[in-house]
Each structure stands twice: as structure tokens, then as C-alpha cells.
TrEMBL record, chain A:
Domain of life: Bacteria
Alphabetical list of InterPro entries matching this protein: MetI-like (IPR000515), MetI-like_sf (IPR035906)
GO cellular component: plasma membrane
Residues annotated as transmembrane: 32-56, 90-114, 126-144, 172-195, 230-252, 278-300
The protein, known as: Sugar ABC transporter permease
Domain ABC transmembrane type-1: 86-301
A Pfam family hit: BPD_transp_1
Keywords associated with the record: Cell membrane, Membrane, Transmembrane, Transmembrane helix, Transport
Species per Swiss-Prot/TrEMBL record: Teichococcus coralli
GO terms (BP aspect): transmembrane transport
Family: Belongs to the binding-protein-dependent transport system permease family.
Stored SUPFAM superfamilies: MetI-like
Automatic annotation (TrEMBL), chain B:
PANTHER family referenced in this protein's UniProt entry, alphabetically: MALTODEXTRIN IMPORT ATP-BINDING PROTEIN MSMX (PTHR43875), OSMOPROTECTIVE COMPOUNDS UPTAKE ATP-BINDING PROTEIN GGTA (PTHR43875:SF1)
SMART domains per the UniProt record, alphabetical: AAA
UniProt gene name: ugpC
Keyword Electron transport: no
GO cellular component: ATP-binding cassette (ABC) transporter complex, substrate-binding subunit-containing
Domain ABC transporter: 4-235
Any one GO MF annotation of this record: ABC-type transporter activity
Family to which this protein belongs: Belongs to the ABC transporter superfamily.
Name used for this protein in its record: sn-glycerol-3-phosphate ABC transporter ATP-binding protein UgpC
GO biological process: carbohydrate transport
Domain of life: Bacteria
InterPro entries, A to Z: AAA+_ATPase (IPR003593), ABC_transporter-like_ATP-bd (IPR003439), ABC_transporter-like_CS (IPR017871), ABC_transpr_MalK-like (IPR015855), ABC_transpr_MalK/UgpC-like (IPR047641), Mo/tungstate-bd_C_term_dom (IPR008995), NA-bd_OB-fold (IPR012340), OB_MalK-like (IPR040582)
Source organism per UniProt: Teichococcus coralli
Entry keyword annotation includes Transcription: no
Key words, A-Z: ATP-binding, Nucleotide-binding, Transport
Length: 311, 366
């Protein structure tokens, strides 16, 4: 027989600060935090700080010498131009994003149907609008829209149509800025959708073909549901970028005619920088946040739900 | 329900590579036919041509007497179970099964009745509200089968449906598939590379190799009377042993001379069949279960030889003994109590009642 002894568990030895540090460094969460730290710092410096500073500025008077509470907000609410800007920003962003999403979806399908060899060539060409700096390409569009000497009006004259005041009339000017934004942004949708299309397993289409689906039914019941997350995320991303668009409107119309093409960014610039009322400009810019937050919450909630169900 | 007929069916790809080289096959109504063969033998391509997922380069395919060469998959009245199940991840189990019926505009009550019925047959009724993500591999496989059953098609096509399951579940699902076929009796064409699946499921097995059909027949016929070396080696696990040798006439009887001066007498009832081959090199084909430890030596046509095992594999109910004979790898099945050890000579019995003689040039069983 062997004899055994029982003893109470001993207290753990005192942990040296060195080993605690080493253990902390070895943790996955620490590595993850360190890797994301540069981005966190960027967001803090370029998003959080300006946002908080804009909040502070919005409470000051024009000379930035006195706290005036919500007077800047009430002033904006009383101005028709501000409500025009709200309407124009929503109209600009929603119309442009919907059209970009549609064109991107169609282009992605056409490209996906091409043989791999030809696909690369077309993909490259169709991405060109997206890779040209928008300030430069918008200048080219500005020339195209020129009322007297532009290619568009020259072409229209050739078929006997009267010249169009592309940038001179509110309706046409709104159409023109949306058109340029669509031209610039559609390739992004196309490339995202193409990637999504390529990730749909071929066997699902084969199963649908055997189940009796036509081409349209495959698109409706297989492709579209399988792409919904990518579509949602792309739409959200594009909505944010389009909503905050500055360069296209600034170069093409500078908000005119009669402020009828202003969006939040160009209006905030005009009020804050050009007219010298920085607190009011900051107040205008703050309105983008709640509108985008509402879109983002709805879209991301749907994405989360679908990811949990399908992934 | 329908018969399926393939006439000189060819599948050629760009560059002239032929995956299927003109096969003929008749599958009867209610029959369960398994296409089996190694990777690249053309079995899946053949199934996909029957499904309409691959174009036919030449020949004719008919389902239920109707030529379907140019008929799209949706109009062939077939259902298919894929290797990766191909369940729609955004639909519930019910919707996955109902999708084909919904597209064909079946009334809602009829769809529900059929899905519930298939759910009962496959024991997946409690899963109908779940999405495929929330199912195990075996459950997904059942749903994929359910999707096929609800359609009540003329032909079921299975493309390696059990390959993604673990060994235990594979055996269980194999039985389920057989039960389902016994219940619904739909003509079934099943593709697998696993000869055990082929043997256990099929009414008839089609062994394919290099784009051609090597042999078609019931499992037992293929096992006991293979026509080619490929079929003899492919069917059975482990496959048949092939030992190079020579047939010689001597002392009034025909004998097979093997390496290491082993001489085995050809059974009297086969002498007439092989007498013309005397003096020629042949391959002796013998299955591992007919090469055992020395036992039943008093039975007619059981000869003895001594082999020195290189490797032994205890399987529980038997032990596989590997040894070499003139470069040929030989496997024998011996009783687990037999004194089989690597390097130790082991007296063995060869049951020549089950021997096969093959032509080493053509690989034909003579």
C-alpha cells in the first residue's frame, strides 16, 4: 500500500509585472488592438475631434466670441434655402445611388456572362471613370456641358434639337450633377457586384435550373438574395460618400443656379468659408450625421441578421 | 417513372479532350443504377449530361422514350442531389423543398402536403423552419433528398451525395437512400467513386474508366465474374490480386507456374477453357479472401503456398497480410488468430475454385 497526503491548494505565487506584460502582449485581443490602433488614432483625429469641435462651433456666434446655444439651428430652420439643401441632398444622394446600383448590377451581370479573357479587358475599361480623380473628370464634364461650344449641344444641334442649358436651369443642373456622379460611381458598384456574383456557387444555379427556374427566376430567387448583403453594404457606403459629395457640385455648378444644386457639403463650405460664418457652416455640416446614422442603422441591422442566418 | 437510354453519347471539350467516349446504356423503369469509377472516368459528366447541365457533343439521350438532347434541365422532369447539397442558404428547409413546386405553380395546399410527406419519409419534419446553416451535414443531405422527392420526378440523379459525410454517417445515409428508393421506386442514377456504395445500393453497377463503360451488371456478377482487369481490381476492397505466371501442360493436367517456383493446378472443370493458352504468359487473378491461412486443405482445388508477410493489418474480424511476389503486391485475408507476422513465413491456402486467368496484354478476363 502506498501512503498519500492531502494538502490544501497553495495560493498562487506573486505575479511579477514582467510576466503580466508578457501575458498581455501574447493575448489575441492585444494584438488586434495594436493592429487597429493607427486606424483608431486616424478616426479620433479626423472624425471624432472635428465632429466634437463642430458641435462646439455650432453653439457660437458668427464672430465666435459668445455662446448662443441652439440659435444657429433655429436660424437655419427658418431659412428656405436650408430646406432646399436638405431636399436637394436627399434627392441627389438617393437618386444617384439608386441609378448607380442599377447600372452597376446590369454591368456586373453583363461582365459575368463574358468569357474570362474578354472580361478582364472590359472590366479594366469600365473601371476608368472610377480611377480618374473626380476633380479632373468633372472638369471634362463641365466642358461637355458648356452651353455654347459643348459636344453635347453640338451633337443635339446635329439632330435638330435646341441647345440644352445643362448647368443653367435648376432641373437640368440637378440632372447634370447626378449624371456625373452616376458616371463616376457606377464602376464601384459594378466591381463589388461582380465579386459578389463570382462568390455565388454554380451549383445553386444548377439546382435552380433543375428545380425549373428560368433565367429571370434564377436572378430573382438565387442571385439577388445571395447578393443582398453586398448590395446593402455597397449602397450604404455609396450613400455616405454621395451624401457628403463636394467636388462634383462645387466644380460643375458651385451650388447654382440660385442655390438649386447645393448639397450639405457645398452649402456648409459656402456659408462657413466663403461667407465667413464658420459656426453656421459647422451647424449645416452637422445635419449630415443624423440622416446617415438612420440609413446606416437600418442597413447594417439587415446585413447582421442575414449574415447570422446564412453564413 | 421512366427508363433512361444513352446511345453513343460523347462529351468532348475544346481542344479535343473526350471525357465520355461514346457510351451506350439502358436503364429500366424503377431501376437503381450506380455509375462508379475513379476520378476523371466520365461518370459525373455522364450524369450531368442526363441532367442537361452539360451539352452532349454527340449521341442521344432519351428519358421516358423522349429525346432530351436539346431539352433544358427544367423540362426534363428530373431531380438531382448534389455533392455539396446545393441548398439555397437564404431559404428555410420548407422553402428549399417547396421551391421547385412553387416555380411549377403547384397549389399551396399541394406543396404543403408534399413537403410534409417528404419530411415524414426523411424524418426532418422538426427542421422545416430552419435555415440550412442550422443543420448538420446529415440533415442537409436529407433536405437535399427531400427537395428531390417532393417533385415526384421521372428520374432521380445523385452526384456523389455522401462524399462530404463522415464514415459513420455515410453508412447510415446509404441505408436511408436505399429505403427511400424502396418506398418511392423512382428510376435512380447514382454516381460515386466508392465501390462499397455501388455494391450496396445498386440493382446494376456501371463501371466506367477513361470515358468508356468497362462493364455493366448486378453487383454480385461484377464481383464474381469481372470481364476486365480494371473491373476485377476496382470492385472489391481490397481489390483482386494479379500474379504474373505461365500456363503449362504437365503430367496430363494444366498448371499455372508462378514466381518462386510455385505451381498451382488448374481445376479440372476449367481445363478445357484454358487449354489453348498453354505455354503463354497469363495473369492469375485471385481475391484476397480466397488467399488465406492454410485451412480447408481437404477441399477440392485448394492448393498451398508459403508467403513471407511484409506488413500485416489487423482489422478486428480479419487480418490483411501484404506480401510481394515477383514485384506484384499481394494481399491476403487471414483469420485474426493466424500466426501472421512480418518476416515470418506463413503457410497459405489458395482456393482455385475462384481463380481467374487474364490476358496480360489486353487485361481481358479469359
Amino acid at each position: 500500500m502506498s501512503q498519500g497526503t492531502l494538502s490544501a491548494p497553495t495560493a498562487p505565487a506573486a505575479v511579477s509585472p514582467h510576466s503580466t506584460l508578457r501575458r498581455l502582449a501574447r493575448r489575441n485581443s492585444t494584438t488586434a488592438f495594436l493592429l487597429t490602433l493607427p486606424l483608431i488614432l486616424l478616426v479620433l483625429g479626423l472624425v471624432v475631434y472635428p465632429f466634437l469641435y463642430a458641435l462646439y462651433l455650432a453653439t457660437l456666434n458668427k464672430r465666435m466670441t459668445k455662446f448662443i446655444g441652439i440659435d444657429n439651428f433655429t436660424f437655419l430652420f427658418s431659412r428656405q434655402t436650408f430646406w432646399d439643401v436638405v431636399l436637394q441632398s436627399v434627392l441627389f444622394a438617393v437618386t444617384a445611388v439608386v441609378v448607380k446600383a442599377l447600372i452597376g448590377f446590369i454591368l456586373a451581370h453583363v461582365l459575368h456572362a463574358l468569357p474570362a479573357k474578354g472580361q478582364r479587358k472590359w472590366r479594366g475599361m469600365l473601371l476608368v471613370p472610377w480611377v480618374i480623380p473626380p476633380a479632373i473628370s468633372t472638369l471634362a464634364w463641365w466642358w461637355l456641358f458648356d452651353p455654347s461650344y459643348s459636344a453635347f449641344n453640338w451633337a443635339l444641334a446635329g439632330i435638330g434639337v435646341d441647345p440644352v442649358p445643362w448647368l443653367g436651369q435648376a432641373g437640368w443642373a440637378r440632372f447634370s450633377v447626378i449624371l456625373v456622379n452616376v458616371w463616376y460611381g457606377s464602376p464601384f458598384f459594378m466591381i463589388m457586384y461582380l465579386a459578389a456574383l463570382k462568390s455565388v456557387p454554380d451549383q445553386l444555379y444548377e439546382a435552380a435550373a433543375i428545380d425549373g427556374a428560368t433565367g429571370w427566376q434564377k436572378l430573382r430567387f438565387v442571385t439577388f438574395p445571395m447578393m443582398r448583403n453586398i448590395i446593402s453594404i455597397t449602397v450604404l457606403f455609396s450613400l455616405i460618400v454621395t451624401f457628403a459629395n463636394f467636388d462634383i457640385v462645387r466644380i460643375l455648378t458651385n451650388g447654382g443656379p440660385l442655390d438649386k444644386t447645393h448639397v450639405f457639403a457645398t452649402y456648409a463650405f459656402q456659408v462657413g468659408i466663403q461667407s465667413g460664418d464658420i459656426p453656421l457652416g459647422a451647424t449645416v455640416s452637422l445635419f449630415m450625421f443624423p440622416l446617415l446614422a438612420i440609413f446606416a442603422i437600418f442597413i447594417l441591422r439587415g446585413v447582421n441578421r442575414r449574415t447570422k442566418e446564412m453564413a | 417513372m421512366a427508363q433512361v437510354t444513352l446511345r453513343k453519347v460523347v462529351k468532348a471539350y475544346d481542344g479535343g479532350v473526350q471525357a465520355v467516349k461514346g457510351i451506350d446504356l439502358d436503364i429500366a423503369d424503377h431501376e437503381f443504377v450506380v455509375l462508379v469509377g475513379p476520378s476523371g472516368c466520365g461518370k459525373s459528366t455522364t450524369l450531368r449530361m442526363i441532367a442537361g447541365l452539360e451539352e452532349i457533343s454527340d449521341g442521344e439521350i432519351a428519358i421516358g422514350g423522349r429525346l432530351v438532347n436539346d431539352v433544358p434541365p427544367r423540362d426534363r422532369d428530373i431531380a438531382m442531389v448534389f455533392q455539396n447539397y446545393a441548398l439555397y442558404p437564404h431559404m428555410t428547409v420548407f422553402d428549399n423543398m417547396a421551391f421547385g413546386l412553387m416555380l411549377r405553380k403547384f397549389p399551396k395546399e399541394e406543396i404543403k402536403r408534399r413537403v410534409d410527406n417528404a419530411g415524414r419519409i426523411l424524418d426532418i419534419t422538426p427542421l422545416l423552419d430552419r435555415k440550412p446553416k442550422a443543420l448538420s451535414g446529415g440533415q442537409r443531405q436529407r433536405v437535399a433528398m427531400g427537395r428531390a422527392i417532393v417533385r415526384d420526378p421521372k428520374v432521380f440523379l445523385f452526384d456523389e451525395p455522401l462524399s462530404n459525410l463522415d464514415a459513420k454517417l455515410r453508412v447510415q445515409m446509404r441505408t436511408e437512400i436505399k429505403k427511400v428508393h424502396q418506398t418511392v421506386k423512382t428510376t435512380t442514377i447514382y454516381v460515386t467513386h466508392d465501390q462499397v456504395e455501388a455494391m450496396t445500393l445498386a440493382d446494376r453497377v456501371v463501371v466506367m474508366n477513361g470515358g468508356i463503360i468497362e462493364q455493366v451488371g448486378p453487383p454480385q456478377e461484377l464481383y464474381h465474374n469481372p470481364k476486365t482487369r480494371f473491373v476485377a481490381g476496382f470492385i472489391g476492397s481490397p481489390g483482386m490480386n494479379f500474379i504474373p505466371g505461365r500456363l503449362e501442360n504437365g503430367a496430363g493436367a494444366l498448371r499455372v507456374h508462378l514466381p518462386n517456383d510455385i505451381v498451382l493446378p488448374v481445376p479440372a472443370d476449367r481445363t478445357a477453357r484454358y487449354s489453348g493458352l498453354a505455354g503463354k504468359p497469363v495473369l492469375l487473378g485471385i481475391r484476397p479472401e480466397h488467399l488465406t491461412e492454410a485451412k480447408n486443405l481437404d477441399r477440392p482445388n485448394v492448393a498451398t503456398l508459403t508467403a513471407t508477410p511484409e506488413v500485416t493489418e489487423p482489422m478486428g474480424m480479419e487480418t490483411l497480410v501484404h506480401f510481394k511476389m515477383e514485384g506484384a503486391e499481394i494481399v491476403a485475408r487471414v483469420d485474426p488468430t493466424a500466426p501472421a507476422e512480418p518476416g515470418r513465413p506463413l503457410p497459405m491456402a489458395v482456393d482455385l475454385n475462384y481463380m481467374h486467368i487474364l490476358d496480360p496484354q489486353t487485361g481481358r478476363v479469359l
